[in-house]
Design a protein that fits this description.
two-stranded antiparallel ribbon, about 400 residues, alpha+beta, about 50% helix, 15 helices
Length: about 400
């Protein structure tokens, strides 16, 4: 055991009943609380952003292609996914493409009326996203070149219109001649994603029904949904697709389709930054105050050590080593508490949310080992650097004056 370690063990003690011991306990609690709050904040915001982003992208697809026009209504202009367009979309990052179309309609029952948007999907549509949110019934199985009357509606629509799985529902449409036409559908499934803006509008149906209602040919579609291998590069992929397709077509990313949701999510980063800065400052000031009090309380000891030949560097190491140990104890407790609370919330959803306001029914948690390691290393380095400030007082301690008043 070297000299600095031996002396620091004699000076610093959490078990003694004196001022410095009380301050050290407060510093440990402050560091633990700060680390726990920072870990929880990052886990909540990362989980919040990723879950909502996945929901939105899963519903509208990462990228979709449609006809370029000035039509601001839901009614779409058709185009054909021919071999030329398929060749232009032969990109290594594209994993799936699905033919779809949308059409506005009105669900009417004896007591209620509800405006909806029918999203027509083809026979090979990937239902994996909707299947995770099915709360009753199942997803339909459409057949190529046949029209199915099976539809999947949201829980919001089902509750408002008092519909259940197996019920028949009539949806009304307005054709190009401004005449109302009704079609009878069968409710085969009910879903609930928590995205209020989508759940209260969309009904999934057979693409061939949209084609028949619009008078389209069997090879015409309203828009093409494109799925990619990495959602982090959606904007870059969209740019490549945009410049690859014909000029009469245009591509949009999910961020452009629902910009208000993604802008709102970006604002959450600022909240995390503010929380982390506040916790770093509060805990940092506490540990600086702790070390200052200990140095002032041990002024005579510092003078005695200098009188015995110890230099300023040795004495600073004495105080820094034990201070760093106190930091590590506090950070260890903070990690245990923070990660433990995150795991409890992740498994048991103890804290709930209003889906109408937050798109989620419970506070989301996403623990990333890289975030945890980075946070701990960064805070440790910063706090150690902050501890160097009070040790500068050691240089000003004069043995002749400090020992005199012992």
């Amino acid at each position: 055991m070297n000299t600095a370690t031996f002396i620091s063990k004699r000076i610093f003690s959490l078990s003694k009943e004196n001022l410095s011991s009380t301050v050290m306990r407060i510093a440990v609690a402050s560091v633990a609380l700060g680390v726990a709050i920072m870990l929880i904040s990052i886990a909540v915001v990362v989980g919040f952003k990723n879950q909502i982003k996945d929901k939105v992208i899963g519903f509208v697809a990462p990228i979709h292609i449609q006809v370029l026009n000035q039509n601001e209504s839901i009614e779409e202009s058709p185009f054909v996914l021919d071999s030329v367009l398929i060749a232009r979309l032969d990109k290594p990052f594209i994993t799936e493409m699905h033919k779809t179309a949308s059409k506005a309609g009105i669900i009417k029952t004896d007591d209620e009326i509800q405006a909806v948007v029918l999203k027509g999907v083809d026979f090979d549509y990937n239902w994996s996203y909707i299947e995770t949110y099915i709360i009753d019934g199942k997803t339909p199985q459409y057949i190529e070149n046949e029209r199915s009357n099976d539809v999947v509606i949201s829980n919001i629509i089902a509750h408002k219109m008092q519909l259940n799985v197996g019920d028949a529902v009539r949806i009304w449409f307005v054709d190009q001649d401004m005449k109302a036409r009704g079609r009878k559908f069968n409710v085969i499934g009910i879903y609930e994603t928590g995205l209020q803006e989508c759940d209260e509008r969309y009904v999934y149906c057979d693409l061939n029904q949209i084609r028949r209602l619009n008078g389209w040919n069997n090879n015409e579609i309203g828009h093409l949904e494109i799925w990619v291998d990495n959602q982090e590069f959606i904007s870059d992929y969209n740019q490549q697709i945009y410049y690859s397709i014909p000029t009469e077509l245009v591509s949009y990313s999910a961020m452009e389709t629902y910009p208000h949701i993604f802008d709102w999510l970006e604002l959450q980063d600022m909240n995390v930054v503010i929380i982390i800065v506040l916790m770093l400052l509060v805990a940092g000031i506490t540990i600086i105050s702790m070390l200052l009090i200990i140095i002032l309380e041990r002024t005579s000891t510092i003078g005695l050590l200098k009188a015995m030949g110890a230099n300023n560097g040795l004495i600073r190491r004495i105080f820094l080593r034990r201070s760093c140990l106190i930091l590590l104890i506090g950070m260890l407790i903070g990690n245990v508490v923070g990660i433990g609370l995150c795991l409890l919330q992740s498994h048991f959803n103890l804290i709930t949310l209003s889906p109408e306001s937050y798109y989620l029914s419970a506070v989301p948690i996403e623990l990333n080992p890289w975030h945890i390691i980075t946070l701990n290393l960064g805070t440790m380095i910063l706090w150690v650097l902050m501890l160097l400030l009070p040790t500068m007082l050691i240089n000003n301690v004069r043995p002749s004056k400090s020992i005199r008043f012992e």
